[in-house]
Amino acid sequence: MHFAKMHALGNDFMVIDSVTQKVFLNPKTIQALADRHRGIGFDQLLLIEPPYDPDTDFHYRIFNADGSEVNQCGNGARCFALYVTLQGLTNKNDIYVTTNNGRMILSINHNTVKVNMGAPNFTPKKVPFKANTPEHFYMITTAKGVQLCGVVSMGNPHCVVTVDNVNTADVTGIGPLIENHERFPERTNVPFMEIVSPTEIKVRVWERGAGETQACGSGCCGAVAVGIRQGKLKPNTPITVHTLGGDLEIQWSGVEGEPLFMTGPASFVYTGKINSNTIRQIRALHLAQLARKQELAAQANAASAPTQTATNAQTSAPVQNSTAAHNASSANNANATLSEEQAQAELENDPENFTIRSNA
Ligand SMILES: N[C@@H](CCC[C@H](N)C(=O)O)C(=O)O
């Protein structure tokens, strides 16, 4: 399987063209490939498919590092535009694409891409977010206190928390608590925004399914949309957004229903080829490592809660052990090299595979 490694402000991607080659993927394979120690390592995987709509040039799908499929990715959109241009798949400056979120127009100028991200949507049901009416501010109660935030969909959910200082914000502590909060039935991304001036902000994002990333395009768009709606940022003016990985320029009129525009760079890192045997091995070793981690966590729990040891020993421990044993044995099996055809057939026949549209 041929792929490219790309990034946009350090938010990194594995990009796979399934128009010209057969690809077999499922959530576990994606998680394994995303592993930064045993796999290729990335925040998101972009899968290019033939157009679903005859008026567009391409369709692409987006998967988080945890294997979940999502509908929107701002930095991914810019990398996608650069990829299809550099690979000679299009020579258009305005590229029409669809994702699971609908249509987008990507305008490329050298390594800079302007993306029409569509209209921010503040309707709770569309996010989805549990609230009766759309409000400018919501209070979300977490184990780390009550957070004052704004909630918006940019095609994907964002819960924007305004902080005094992004450098000291507890992104990795509060982020996962809000990501998995019961008011977000499909989980959420959590941008932390520091207002520098009405035209400048700093943003760090805890991403759903990927953890804190160097930058999150849709998260920065969500922050600007919420900042304008809450009266903290200026509408109809380019807003400079500083992320850990660099700067974006984002502009929105502030009028509901009108699109928001994001402009920023995209970078190509390398192209690679990975064969089916290697994918099998990466997957098996990743699963074995996961089981090992679960076992260690169970042991640590048992040690810190002596009164529960007997119950754990009778119930969860045998299950953990059998999972670990199963994964360890698949790790060993994966070390036995198959012919490429056999390895490919094994990947191809995994019942958890997604359906992928391809011309290959
Ligand atoms: N990094 C992306 C967003 C990727 C998807 C997100 N984690 C989600 O689950 O919605 C961006 O640049 O927008």
TrEMBL record:
Recorded GO CC terms: cytosol
The organism's taxonomic lineage, starting at the top: Bacteria, Pseudomonadati, Pseudomonadota, Gammaproteobacteria, Pasteurellales
The keyword Amino-acid biosynthesis is assigned to this record: yes
Site feature: Important for dimerization: 270
Binding, substrate: 11, 44, 64, 74-75, 156, 189, 207-208, 217-218
Keywords tagged on the record: Amino-acid biosynthesis, Cytoplasm, Isomerase, Lysine biosynthesis
Pathway(s) where this gene product acts: Amino-acid biosynthesis; L-lysine biosynthesis via DAP pathway; DL-2,6-diaminopimelate from LL-2,6-diaminopimelate: step 1/1
Pfam families for the chain: DAP_epimerase
Function: Catalyzes the stereoinversion of LL-2,6-diaminopimelate (L,L-DAP) to meso-diaminopimelate (meso-DAP), a precursor of L-lysine and an essential component of the bacterial peptidoglycan.
Single annotated GO MF: diaminopimelate epimerase activity
Subunit comment: Homodimer.
The keyword Isomerase appears for this protein: yes
Residue numbers annotated as active site: 73, 73 (proton donor), 216 (proton acceptor)
Origin: domain of life: Bacteria
UniProt region (Disordered), positions on chain: 301-360
Protein's recorded name: Diaminopimelate epimerase
Bias-annotated ranges (Low complexity): 301-337
Compartments it resides in: Cytoplasm
Organism of this sequence: Psittacicella hinzii
